[in-house]
Write a structure and sequence with these properties.
alpha/beta, 265 residues, 8-stranded parallel β-barrel, two-stranded antiparallel ribbon, homodimer, TIM Barrel
Chain lengths: 265, 265
């Protein structure tokens, strides 16, 4: 999906919500465990309950990889089930030397047909460029992440610039706002004015709302640009909103609509 | 495998060679494509040909992930086939928020039973610690990588220290030389004296010999410590040494023995 279409869906739906499909067998409603593929059954119900309130889905690949072959099957079926009107993100945080990154790009853009993949910047240009070579596909590069460990290295200053800034500035010479987004965590709301100055035109994928405690209002106030420019992700806060109940889909849908309702633009 | 056993195998075999099992369907000998699982058939022959000359095997996960379910099956069979006397490394370069890194740790240490996994440091402590919590397992953290893109961010200086140094120093408060190694690329041979000073007791996994043009002699001269402290990886230089020939195993074995022969200690 290209940027024009993404912005179209955001405006039409009045939503820039991304739902994180991080199905965990220990946490999904117990009645689903009787099915042959409980992860897919859960995702299917979550997608049905949230698709009118969100514009994107983001399976975190770790939750599938830890289940081995069965997990990859669940992921394939989930991808097939997501409507074409929704932007799909493989939250994989991959990157390797160029020769190897090409294989990861093939995995996520060819074997699966994701629109975007999250990428870790540490290994630099040749680890990222193979993903950007795919026409119509996106890199979402880690810049300032939402977790506690983001404070270990991402704020280290070099020539007066924190590492996340160097990453965002350098990466803008690799890609354009049409194929490059950044991950910027909602747990650093005070930084969004600065982040938007560093990358005025790129979309930000914003995790950290909900379970991680981020601040949606501050993110919207300082993070939006003329094309909205934000995808706000919530995973646990939405998909587990219904707990163990047999009609958990009701609360899942309500949680998504609640977040959508806060998106004023 | 713990450090005592790893050092025992290194000394007994007079080898600290790691063979990278990066099987690529476009590059393996064509006669193997007739088999049901060409990747496994190739790996099996490479393992048979090299196991007396090396102490470790390192499948790069990208090469399996890009094949979907079939790739994961090939990887499982390959892991089962590697003798218990050999240290196994999942070259995965993973890391995510703590909650998610736990899933990756489960994938590589429980679903598969790898001894070690390579980890990207950008997301900091909580992205790495879940891997270190596994008794008897290892984290191999990216420090100074072998690729061209290593120059983009890893040399950025903060308080007079390049980023790779900050990573290596900080990570030594997370793990010990008994569960933490660093990736240090052979394409930066002039840095090994300094790298060894930063982490005197940790093993280094050294890629970049062979296809990437690294300098083995300089790495050995400055990188060794009293427990040897090095695992030198070669992937393409060994596994594709036999080209398309039906008895490619001969040259694969010879290439491994050639590298082993250069390991004087």
């Amino acid at each position: 999906m290209n940027k024009t279409d993404l912005v179209y869906h955001i405006r039409r739906k009045r939503s820039f919500l991304c739902v994180g499909l991080d199905a965990d067998l220990d946490k999904i409603p117990k009645h689903l465990l009787a099915y042959k593929d409980p992860v897919f059954e859960f995702n299917k119900r979550v997608i049905d309950a949230t698709k009118d309130a969100c514009v994107a889905y983001k399976p975190n690949i770790a939750f599938y990889e830890c289940l081995g072959n069965k997990g990859w099957e669940s992921l394939e079926k989930t991808l097939d089930y997501i409507p074409d009107t929704h932007f799909t993100i493989a939250d994989a945080k991959r990157a390797d030397i160029g020769n190897t990154s090409r294989k990861y790009a093939r995995a996520f853009f060819e074997h699966f047909d994701f629109d975007a993949v999250t990428i870790a910047p540490y290994m630099g240009s040749d680890s990222v460029l193979p993903f950007l070579e795919y026409e119509g596909k996106w890199v979402i590069l880690l810049a300032l992440t939402s977790n506690k460990g983001s404070r270990d290295f991402q704020f280290l200053e070099s020539s007066g610039k924190p590492l996340y800034q160097s990453v965002m500035e350098t990466a803008q010479s690799w890609g354009t706002p049409d194929n490059l987004m950044f991950v910027t965590g909602a747990t650093h709301p005070e930084k969004f004015k600065e982040l938007r100055q560093i990358a005025p035109d790129n979309f930000f994928l914003v995790p950290g709302i909900g379970a991680q405690g981020g601040d949606l209002k501050a993110v919207m106030k300082y993070g939006m640009n003329e094309e909205v420019g934000l995808l706000i992700n919530s995973s646990r806060g939405i998909i587990y909103a219904g707990g163990d109940s047999t009609d958990f889909e009701q609360q899942v849908g309500a949680a998504a609509r609640d977040l959508q309702g806060m998106m004023v633009f």
